[in-house]
Amino acid sequence: MEFRARDHVRGLTALLSVLSLALVFGAALGAIPRAAIPTAPAAALNAIPHVNAVISTVAIVTILAGVRFVRRGEIERHRRMMLASFLLFATFLVLYLYKVVVQGTAEFPGPDAVYQFVYLPTLAIHILLAVVCVPVVYYVLLLALTRPITEVFGTEHARFGRVAASLWLVSFVLGNVVYALLYVVY
């Protein structure tokens, strides 16, 4: 019997989501040993948050462009923008996880009141949306990649795609707010 990814989109979504989130939480909770990863020079490590802010901003633009293209019926351009968005997200995540494993999470340098009433709620919503976004993005991506474009219209791609794009956009924007609070404002 032949395995066809298109027949197992939900299972593959679950598998990829569990693996991805295990990697993220493993890195964030210190389960990945620092000694297992080569350490980059300090300048490269210090550049990661700034590079990731640029990646997030570009991803916001590619997601918005992808949404615009699909609304105008420009399916191939939509596809390219959404694949670019996913690659930007993956690049962001690899860089972020590398920095977290090697250096740990960044401490908030600002006042306690801003930490409690602005930074923590913003970070919590950003993290929640990012976690929820993972399986939705995988599902939409797998529906699109495992079928010819003409068959994608007969799936749940559009319905879940709207949810994925919305969650992704808000998560990236809030991520940039967290970045600004950590590295620009304070």
UniProtKB/TrEMBL annotation:
Its transmembrane ranges are 52-70, 82-98, 118-142, 163-185
UniProt KW keywords: Membrane, Transmembrane, Transmembrane helix
A GO CC term? membrane
The record's listing under Pfam families reads:
DUF420
UniProt GO molecular function: cytochrome-c oxidase activity
One of the GO biological process terms: respiratory electron transport chain
Q: Which InterPro entries match?
A: Cyt_c_oxidase_su3_a-hlx, DUF420
Can you say what this protein is called?
A: DUF420 domain-containing protein
Q: Which organism is it from?
A: Haloferax sulfurifontis ATCC BAA-897
